[in-house]
Amino acid sequence: MTIKQFQTLWKGAIRYALLFLLFTACSKSNAPGNKEEEKPLPTQPTQFNNPVFEPVLADPAIIKAADGWFYGYGTEDNWGDGQGNRLVPVIRSLDLVKWTVVGNAFTIKPQWKTDGGIWAPDVVLVNNKYYLYYSYSVWGDTNPGIGVAVAGNPAGPFVDKGKLFLSNEVGVPNTIDPFYFAEDDKKYLFFGSYSTALNQGTYVVELGEDGFLVKNLASKVKIAAGDFEAVMIHKRNNYYYFFGSKGSCCNGSASTYQVRVARSTSLLGPYLDKDGRNITERGNGTLLIAGNDKYAGPGHNSRIMTDKNGTDWLLYHAILKSNPIVPGGASRRTLMLDKINWIGDWPVIENEIPGDMLRKAPEF
């Protein structure tokens, strides 16, 4: 054998050896038992029990964001964990059951009011931006108000766009609990809370095209009496449904919050309960959910979330009576989840109380 022939054979042997090694490595990386290279997708729970998040997410607002995640936002609160007041806490989930803390919606508190907390946020996607409508108030505030902030990301940070109006500007006491609703190229803001004054109640006003201003404060329409707060409007088939909370929200285990409903064939009302009574009169509304021996004060529900099977789910806060207060002294308003059944075109929650057993989870 010549030297040239030997070199040719040697190069060929090296080439085959390299190909064999490469094939072996690829086979191992694709083998079922090789866990290091696998990136399993998050598993979805098949069952759940309440609460779905704790210690606190008071007055929850839930949105399905463009990135595929659900985001939850709550009233400014001190969770008693040494981190001070959270300026609108933000949590997220893929399934409404397993939630993780993302951070806070605001890095600094809006400056258009001198005192108060940021309460009862409502977050919506408007003009490809995330709008956060919020209340600015202290307990017993004689002139609370409502503002709006904007972010390009559902996790924030949100940049404040300032005040929409104060109570004394719109002529409604206790102007808190904003709720945004859009229809037929028009934008509306519902608002209002507890009061016994002559001008008490939940009202609605039309917003400008950008959602940052009210067209005419004097054109407000009364929707419900002042024994309601935390308005949420849901459209289904031929009806608009009013969900509102009554009772005390924040007295620990003695809280009496409950959710009542009414419906209308028009967005601006009149809204009538199941007995045909107009909710602009105090004392009306059909019960959806109330407290029981275990949970106090279920209320201030979010928008309804619908899973892939068409099942509707309601998120709201409630207080575990055996553990009602966080170390900082605030009511421990945990995040709850319950299925809504529709019976005779009326929303119904089983037994009219918070669910307290393992149940089938939403499917997404």
Automatic annotation (TrEMBL):
A biological process term (GO) from this entry: carbohydrate metabolic process
Residues making up the signal peptide according to the UniProt record: 1-31
SUPFAM superfamilies the UniProt entry points to: Arabinanase/levansucrase/invertase (SSF75005)
Site (Important for catalytic activity, responsible for pKa modulation of the active site Glu and correct orientation of both the proton donor and substrate): 177
Domain of life of the organism encoding this protein: Bacteria
Pathway(s) per entry: Glycan metabolism; L-arabinan degradation
KW Transmembrane helix (keyword) present: no
Active site as annotated: 59, 229
UniProt keyword annotations, A-Z: Glycosidase, Hydrolase, Signal
Keyword Transmembrane helix: no
Pfam families, per database record: Glyco_hydro_43
Molecular function terms, GO-annotated: hydrolase activity, hydrolyzing O-glycosyl compounds
PANTHER family (UniProt xref): ARABINAN ENDO-1,5-ALPHA-L-ARABINOSIDASE, ARABINAN ENDO-1,5-ALPHA-L-ARABINOSIDASE A-RELATED
Family as reported in the entry's similarity comment: Belongs to the glycosyl hydrolase 43 family.
Descriptive protein name: Arabinan endo-1,5-alpha-L-arabinosidase
Organism: Pedobacter polaris
Lineage: Bacteria, Pseudomonadati, Bacteroidota, Sphingobacteriia, Sphingobacteriales
